[in-house]
Predict the structure.
Amino acid sequence: MTLTRRTVLAGTALAAAPFGGQALAQAAPSTPGSSQSAETSQAPGFYRYKVGDIEVTAINDGFARRPLEGFVRNAELSQVKEAMREAFLPEEALPITFTTLVLRRDGGGLTLIDTGNGDSGAPTSGFWMENFRAAGFEPSQVENVVISHFHGDHINGLRLKDGTAVFPRAEVMVPAAEWAFWMDDARMNQAPEGMKGAFQNVRRVFGPIANDVKRYEADKEIVPGLTSVAAYGHTPGHTAYMLSSGPGKLMVMSDITNHPALFVRHPDWAAVFDMDADQARQTRHRMLDMAASERAQVAFYHAPFPATGHIAKEGNGFRFVPVQWMPVV
Ligand SMILES: [Zn+2]
């Protein structure tokens, strides 16, 4: 086919068709993570890289579409659409991806950082276990699950809707400040109606193991090489991490930003999910500045897969520069 301006435009119109998202959602498998045909599926969503002696494997859990209207609290919709256009992203809805990390040392068990949506997320999510197994791992190998904060897309992979614990052998480690906030019944009772579900979900996930959950403080080495970093604002106990091994370093940014095209580029913008927008903004500036000046490798939970790269200063904000895909670890 000859490529003409007309065929290009026709393709664009198709991609941007209204309700394209719903059509996709309906076509998605009803069982999360169930196999698609070989012709339409992608390669499994895992990607390995090294940080010193520690092998890191990014595991993708699909995505969810978020309408842009009302998503950024302190920017006009037209500004947000402009940022999406600059990043060549759709202007109707933001595809928010989910990427957890698996850490492994030679001969050691596995440490997870966050767990994905389990079977509680959008129909376009729920691919985590399929990708985890495709990377050669089994849930029984997991020794520690480190949780950054208690939003559902980070904790629901711990427990299926029917109550099944997904990592029965693992020690679950959570930020002490996060636990103190979400497990406080008085706070739950005072919370606005729209937030009560989040409190109840925290109880659903952690209630059965409440006595065994290990609560960690900020600025502590919580498993070998992994140090917690207070990154409050997105939630009251939201935690980032520094992973270090020999000369290798990785700043695990968790949710200090949602999609980099919006919030790395515009660090003053506040996503509707940031519970304390001012504190989250200060945290975001502090950590992005540090990453840029130290030229540190970073990983974000909601960056495009494999969700790792570097931060460059640009204008009043920053730019996320993804790593180059490598065929060998
Ligand atoms: Zn999140």
Summary: The mean pLDDT is 91.
